[in-house]
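Hi again,

Forgot to attach this to my earlier email, sorry! This is the prediction with iron/sulfur cluster bound. I've pasted everything inline since the attachment limit keeps bouncing my files.
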Amino acid sequence: MRITLIKPRIGRKEFGPYIDEGRMEPLQMGVLAGMIPEDIDVSFYDDRMEEVNFDEPTDLVAVTVESFTARRAYEIGKEYKKRGVPVVMGGTHPTLIPEEVAHYADSICLWDAEAVWSTMIEDARRGRLKPVYKQEKIDVPQEGIFPRRDIFRGKGYIPVSLIQFSRGCRYKCNFCATSAYFNQQHYCRSFHEVLREIEEQDRKLLFFVDDNFIGSLKQVKAFLRELIPMKINWVGQMSIDAANDPELVDLMQKSGCLGFVVGFEAIYADSLQWMNKYPNLKNFKQYEPQIKVLHDHGFQLWAAFTLGHDYDTVQTIEDTISFAIKNKFTFAAYNILMPYPNTPLYRQLEEEDRLLYDKTWWLHPDYRFNHAAFKPKHMTADKLTELGYRARTEFNSFGSICRRVFNLKTNMRSLFRLSLYLRYNVLFRREVHNKQGLRLGLFDRFYKKHFTRRTAPAYKGTGNG
Ligand code: B12
Ligand code: SF4
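Structure tokens for the complex follow:
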């Protein structure tokens, strides 16, 4: 038996391909491969930079699906179905909107794969796949499961190993797909297994792709203490309230933290309240004390902002651009607020009749990546799209790169830190323009054939736990 794992791309440029130059190893593919019995052959295609060989003989195709990659995932599914190969889909998007995805797959997996993937494989072996597999309860994620990283070799990923210590987040930001997926719960792995996973891979630079690394403080502190003697460097993702805990930041520094992605989202309290972004509102003084603590510890911050919430005006977005440059953040992401299916934001905008693209931007042939998919309160959708692009362009301009580098505590802390700063700022600068306005999926005729109003599956909202 052979199983083919596929990570789909977002899409393509208007008149040519788009290759993601900053691509990282897709951890979920490694985790799924790690659970496949040894007597089964595994193929893995990363559609973001290689062509999928649809004609390679295979017995089961497993596709991971995010909302941005749903259109492409369905194209891939269709190619295999044409060849009579069963297709299973799982990940964020199928969990958030199962009735849509079920239309394009023989079987779908809701929530994490660990408890059901082996059964899915056995059922596929016997030709008896069920339409839906669902993990009833998550306790300890990835228990006893180690990702297979050999499937990533030779694919040109950036040299950092992705790993997870925990999954989920206890907060309930209104736009967050993760919060909807995990129903505001946070789950930690056994830290002995995480330490073993670190030892068994070759790299000294790790990316903890936890949704919120500090979601369970006691456990993370215990883990960081064990990490110190391993002498690795790591980056991660966490909420800004990390800075309010002196013991935590100290342990992070000692265990080799170089920096992390942090969701600032907005710089004004009314906007943060509107989003339910509670971790940012603790001792809110426009982040001044938190940024000072984090910079003093040498952390290079990747500040993430969301643009377009109901208190945003042209002026507040311009202020956000200046704020990030003034604070000399190492990197910044300016994401337009996206109504992901089955999030509170989606439901609110639907009720207020503000959703564009037939309420399903992820399927719509006219939707373009990084474009607004709803009517903002204080500007047009086009204006918001333009401001998002401007924010990314200004933050990543040469002038801004030169200005932001001058921080002796962070970007100029060592030659290594400086080289990270320069290398990835130049890469992200290129990506701003390359990624803007990508079409979702690759095939145009696909839409005509499958997404005419008559045949499109109606969006009814889901009863996700
Ligand atoms: C790491 C990460 C990134 C990394 C990319 C890493 C990589 N390898 O390329 C970076 C920072 C670059 C990134 C970028 C983006 N990301 Co991102 N990212 C994540 C994050 C935090 C973790 C993903 C991960 O590796 N998890 C670890 C693995 C083991 O878990 P998993 O993916 O959940 O898979 C499990 C189950 O879902 C299931 N499963 C998954 N697939 C399949 C398939 C089958 C067949 C089966 C049976 C089961 C199954 O089993 C797995 C094991 O239990 C997720 C949040 C999340 N919780 O998923 C967001 C997330 C996926 N990203 C998101 C977004 C929006 C983006 C961007 C579009 C942001 C932007 N505007 O630029 C970009 C573009 C991504 C792209 N496709 O190019 C959203 C997607 C929302 C949605 N509804 O689809 C998420 C959910 C974050 C959020 N809070 O909303 N991202
Ligand atoms: S803090 Fe981050 S991960 Fe948690 S709900 Fe908010 S946006 Fe999502």
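The pocket of cobalamin (ligand 1) is lined by residues 10, 20, 23-28, 31, 62-64, 66-69, 88-93, 96, 109, 112-114, 117, 162, 164, 176-178, 209, 211, 335, 340 (CB under 6 Å). Confidence is low (pLDDT under 50) at residues 451-465.

That should be everything now.

G.
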